[in-house]
Specification:
Elements lengths: L1 H6 L3 E4 L3 E6 L10 H4 L6 E5 L22 H13 L5 E6 L1 H12 L4 E7 L18 H13 L1 H13 L5 H12 L3 H12 L14 E7 L6 H10 L3 E9 L3 H4 L1 H20 L1
Helix pairs in contact: 3-4, 5-6, 5-8, 6-7
GO molecular function: hydrolase activity
Family: Belongs to the AB hydrolase superfamily.
Keywords: Hydrolase
């Protein structure tokens, strides 16, 4: 247990009968949840963690072979649930963490009561004519090439793409700084595992109820992806946010909190009937 807690820098806050895990998106650590998680501490136990190689995780535990695909990150999430003896946990995942949590729930559904996915995408690549993920393969290869040749330039560009709002320069700078604090080699491998994953075939296997939170003007996970997930994920709901960009938990924490709270209240009522 202690190895897992150290490896993923697991933090436990708050108290309550229900437990919420907040999982950060690509290139970010647990501190991105600061404005959101505080709203849930009063009546929930909140669990935060970092993926290996990011934040204050144990970088010595990083294994390129293990983390070559998302399966390594899925296993780490399952390890955390096992170490803390969790069951029926509310999982809130941003971006790629949505898929990591989903895959974990397929392997061990008893650990989870519901999945809340913020800006999720099961596949970033376009697959015409039936699927629009938002990116062509050459786009993603160019992204990885830029990470390798000009990591600082990539961090600046990618942060701006995520925010997608020129008036939110401070948020773009915050994300850029987070990306730059991560080892470029680890970041590139995580990016490859993220952007070339295709989890469309796993959607039908999900038994846990889920909420899809779709942001406005999200370049990373466009509207078509949210609609696709709604149609393919069993027992799922879609909530369109006023929040723009890809990081509403940072740019619009109030709306993010409100939407999560409302869903959990409605889910609780449905669950008891």
């Amino acid at each position: 247990m202690s190895h897992v807690i150290k490896r993923n820098n697991v933090k436990i806050e708050g108290s309550g009968e229900k437990t919420i895990i907040f999982a950060p998106g690509f290139g970010c650590d647990q501190t991105v949840w600061q404005d959101v998680k505080n709203a849930f501490l009063g009546d929930n136990k909140v669990i935060l963690f970092d993926y290996v190689g990011i934040g204050n995780s144990d970088i010595e535990s990083y294994d390129p072979e293990k983390y070559h695909t998302l399966s390594g990150y899925v296993q780490d999430l399952l390890d955390i649930c096992s170490a803390l003896d969790l069951e029926k946990t509310i999982f809130v995942g941003h971006s790629v963490s949505s898929m990591i949590g989903m895959l974990a729930s397929i392997k061990k559904p008893a650990y989870f009561s519901t999945l809340i996915m913020i800006g999720p995408s099961p596949c970033y690549l376009n697959d015409p004519p039936s699927y629009y993920g938002g990116f062509e393969k050459d786009d993603l290869l160019g992204l990885l090439d830029m990470m390798e040749k000009n990591y600082i330039g990539w961090a600046n560009m990618f942060a701006s793409t995520l925010v997608n709002d020129p008036n939110r320069h401070s948020l773009s700078k915050d994300l850029e700084d987070r990306f730059c604090s991560t080892d470029p080699v680890i970041a590139r491998q995580f990016a490859e595992a993220t952007f070339f994953a295709d989890n469309r075939g796993d959607l039908s296997k999900v038994s846990v109820p889920s909420l899809i939170m779709q942001c406005s003007n999200d370049i990373i996970a466009p509207d078509e992806v949210g609609e696709y997930l709604l149609n393919q994920l069993p027992n799922s709901d879609l909530k369109r946010l006023i929040a723009t960009g890809h990081c509403p938990h940072m740019s619009h924490p109030e709306e993010t909190i409100q939407v999560i709270r409302q869903y959990l209240e409605e889910f609780s009522v449905t669950d008891t009937n």
